[in-house]
Amino acid sequence: MARYADSLLADGELVSFRTRQHWLATIIDARYPWAIFIVSFVVLILSTNLDGGIRTIVGYIVLVGLVVSLAWLGKVYWNWLSQDYLVTNRRVLKVEGIINKRSADSSLEKINDAVLEQNLMGRLLNYGDLDILTAADIAVDRYRMLNRAPQFKRMMLNEKHELEGEFGRPFPAPPLRSGPPTPVPAAAPAPAAAAPPPREMSADDVTRTLASLADLRDRGAISPEEYEAKKADLLGRL
User: Fold this and answer.
1) Where are the domains of the chain?
2) Alpha helices by DSSP H, 96-141
3) CA torsion, points 226, 228, 231, 232, in degrees to nearest 10?
4) pLDDT tens by residue, 72-84
5) How far is CA 114 from CA 45, 49, 81, 161, in A?
């Protein structure tokens, strides 16, 4: 059966340790109803030696005492069973109350330290008083007669250390996206080699070349336009 404290957990919050007050706390808190019960029981035994009328009156008083003490004891133990003290991976949570619930929590990152006090009886029966301190050394919550108090404190500090370690870890790099490869730009074409400057020719060379070209023109090997272009080129080399 799920407990009320479990409904207060956030998404991803996990319970590391669960406890409540030590059973001895119920005896201390119920000392008055226990006293009424014991006195009523003793008076009930002693009233057997009384006369009928007085015994009847005393019997009614004893009955009222027994009913009140038993109801009181039932409330004390029901309240004890309703306690839930949790250590999670994010906080320390304290839930109390039978019908009207009261919950208080302390975030692990805000807890500076915890002061544990144990007397001789507490060390023998494994309980103690635990004060949770903030960074200003102010007690934000007190756990009186906490059952397994040393384990509760140790688990709380372990979870605090683990939480601080998670905050200090670097965030993982985003995954690489698969996609088409980035096109590599084509290399620029090499510049064309500059044409060598025209070779200079002497006048005799130009004359002989023009004579050869004229002969080719007369035989129809080259057209007159080609002849004129070659002639202009040769004359430009003088």
Assistant:
1) 203-236
2) 120-125
3) -110
4) 999 999 999 999 9
5) 50, 58, 25, 14
